[in-house]
Sequence to fold (62 residues):
Amino acid sequence: MILMLIFFSNFVNGVVQAVGPQLLEATAYSVGFAAVIGLCSGSFTGRALRVVTLGDRGASPA
Fold:
């Protein structure tokens, strides 16, 4: 799901570059695009960190 969201947002960004390049200069568009890409990247990073830290927790006896 997250990977498709990244793909779709990059596709929309490419369409906007081709059809309405003046929209790329708008602050709202830039903030929105950066927020979507940033949240998706943060999700991947968070999942990777969770896997790394859970591996250490599972090996130690409680």
Notes: The two ends are 35 Å apart (CA to CA).
